[in-house]
Amino acid sequence: MTYGHTHHVPVLLQEILDRLPLDPEGYYADGTLGGGGYTLQLMKRLTRGKVIAFDRDPGAIAHARSVLGEDPRYELVHANFDEMEEQWSRGGWPAPLGIVYDLGLSSIQLEAPDRGFSFQAKDAPLDMRFDREQAGPSAADIVNESDEADLADLFFNHGERAGRRIARRIVAERARQPIETAGRLADIVASAAGHGKGRPGRHPATKVFMALRMAVNQEAESLVSSLQQALRLAAPGGRIAVVAYQSREDAIVKNLFRRAAKGCRCELPPDECLCDTPPVVKLLHKRVIVPQEMEIAENPRSRSARLRIVERI
Q: Which of 217, 252, 275 is the last residue of a domain?
């Protein structure tokens, strides 16, 4: 798998560092290693402490190791972040004072020409698995084998209003020839959705590719599991910081944190909850934290970032 020399720019970095309890001898978790940007910045502030960084993508692990070099202040774990609690127990590390998540796709993965994450890589195989050794379907499997109704629901549930029209076109096109490359899928979606639709500058296939990637890697389910583990794992006074880039993921984080801050353990809507259990965390800010204009100008991909932080009680 090819990663090139892409440099990872951590989004909302200063806002996170300003709010984490930084102890030079403390332990921290980076739930989404990616390009290693957050791990590197946390490492710089440690002496005998350590950052334990997780990623399910072996290519990301190898790339980050080449960036970080030999240093006793970090350890890389090839595992999904929904295995954090088990891996932490196995490692025998002290409870983390900070746990950081940078959700979604890293720039390094997006720009890898052989992964199928981007519609810019026309001939890339339509794969989208973070770890190609993982069990389960690839994006090509989902596109070519799912029922039209299931495809339509998948796209619509991720914000693509033309989801049903796109699903119908996909089914028609795959009957002529299986859809095997990112470029062909992007062209089909653009034709069905309309080239001029959507946000200016955004490719009409953006939400479809995001929906497929999240389905392939079961990202929503893994996120819920990992955050629940983080709430148990963090040291008292430790903080959990999550940067999300799309509304569905941000809603998951917001809802889970608010429930934990109320001591809610049921499945009822928050305003109907009758749980009488102590809160697990406290919210550190009432409104979501967003990038400043200067950061957006320097790193346009940060525009949609939303940061939420809680403190373990």
A: 217
Which positions ≥6 away from 290 have C-beta within 8 Å?
305, 306, 307
26/76 same-domain check: yes
What are the pLDDT digits (tens) for 219-272? 999 999 999 999 999 999 999 999 999 899 999 999 999 999 999 988 787 678
CATH of the domain at 203: 1.10.150.170
For 141-150, write each residue's pLDDT tens digit: 999 999 999 9
Supply 217's token pair: 């890697």
SS3 content of the chain, % helix, strand, coil (to 5): 45, 10, 45
Predicted TM-score (pTM) of the model is 0.90
The number of beta carbons lying within 10 Å of the beta carbon of residue 21 is 13
The three-class DSSP label of residue 172 is helix
Same structural domain, 244 and 305: yes
* 202/74 same-domain check: no
Number of domains into which the chain is organized: 2
Inter-residue contact 211 to 157 (CB < 8 Å): yes
Gyration radius of the chain's alpha carbons? 20
Measure Cα distances from 20 to 41, 44, 148, 179 in Å: 12, 14, 46, 45
193 within 8 A of 120, measured Cβ to Cβ:
no
Closest CA to 311 of 260, 249, 264, 265: 260
**Beta strand residue intervals within 216-291, DSSP E:** 239-244, 281-283
**Are 33 and 25 spatial neighbours (Cβ–Cβ below 8 Å)?**
no
What six digits make up the tokens of 112?
A: 């890898």
Tokens standing for residue 275: 């749980």
**Distances in Å between the alpha carbon of 70 and those of 50, 66, 105?**
13, 9, 26
State the CB neighbour count (10 A cutoff) for residue 178. 14
Which tokens sit at 137?
Answer: 């379907």
